[in-house]
Amino acid sequence: MFLKGSALGMLAYGRLGLKYSWDIDLLTTEPSALQALQLLEQHGYRLSGSGGLPRHALRRFTRFTHEIELRNDRGMTVELHWRLFSKPILSGVTGASETQTVDIGGATVRTLREDLLVAFLIAHGQEHGWSRLKWIADLNALLAQKTEDELAELHARAATFDLEAKTSAALLLCAQLFDLPLPEPLQAKLRRNRTVKRLVEADLACIAHPLSGQDLPVLSRASIALITSRFGRGTGWRMALAELGALWTQPTKRARYPAALDFLYHLLRVPIWLLRVPLRLAENRRVKVRVEREC
């Protein structure tokens, strides 16, 4: 099924051309990941975002991450997902979950059922601190179609997906940036929540950063504030371990080690990371100087 992209553009804006997209996100199931990859390759797509990962390492690669990038000769890019996230977020939502259909240019495509789609958009945007403004703009366009009672119900259902704080932050951002009308009692309740306040502050720092999305430097203040905001009160130990694991694991590098030699990855990770810290900081300074000159 399709994630985001033109399907979301039709649902949010009612027509194509308003939502910017540069790739096509497809969701399959984890057992079908390699089969789906093979099917795309048969249609002219080639791996482009896996760092030259050998074929025999792909099975291990799918354990450590949730997506892979492919591109064809015309420059069209597909991101194939077999999970929504590498971490245990919305783990019950898969390529076999319930769908809705969207008409696009005379064709019909499937995307996630509306409540699952909204939950995914919120979880995805918050993972990156909404650092691409279009992510929160697209969510707002969807939510703007709802009544205040429906928005209150959406917030109440967020606990079902374990997304209460993230949904709260997303609603406040939409209200602050796009004047999304929220019920006054709900808005007042959200603004009093310290965890939600920290999330919103971290999100606004990411949105305001000169670099966006996954280009946000890991060692930047905005990125560090976003990461630390995830370890607030109420964060379970499983999620905390998952956060640390995501920071630790480099999927394309770790997948190259055979399972029996996986300990070597962990053994070498610390000295390599320490050696790269000065390089990352120097690159951050160069980017900052370049951006300041351009501005």
Description:
With 295 residues, this protein is an alpha+beta fold. Helix content is 54%, strand content 10%. It is built from 13 helices and seven strands. The strands form two sheets. A five-stranded mixed β-sheet has the order 1-2-5-4-3, with helices on one face. Strands 6-7 form a two-stranded antiparallel ribbon. Strand 6 (99-104) and strand 7 form a beta hairpin. The longest helix has 33 residues, at 262-294. The radius of gyration is 20 Å and the shape is globular. The model has no long low-confidence stretch (mean pLDDT 88).
Fraction in helix: 40-55%
Overall spatial form: globular
Number of helical elements: 13
The H/E string reads EHEHEHEEEEHHHHHHHHHH
Strand order of the largest sheet: 1-2-5-4-3
What is the number of E strands? 7
Radius of gyration of CA atoms, rounded to a whole number: 20 Å
Unreliably modeled segments: none
Termini gap: 40 Å
- The share of residues in extended strands comes to 5-15%
Tell me, rounded to a whole number, the average pLDDT: 88
The biggest beta sheet reads: 5 strands, mixed
Give me the secondary-structure category. alpha+beta
Brief rundown of the structure:
The protein is built from 13 helices and 7 strands.
Provide the fold topology.
Layout: E1 2-3, H1 5-13, E2 24-27, H2 33-42, E3 46-47, H3 58-64, E4 67-71, E5 77-81, E6 99-104, E7 107-112, H4 114-127, H5 133-143, H6 148-157, H7 164-178, H8 184-192, H9 194-208, H10 221-229, H11 237-248, H12 251-254, H13 262-294
Parallel strand pairs: 2-5
Antiparallel strand pairs: 1-2, 3-4, 4-5, 6-7
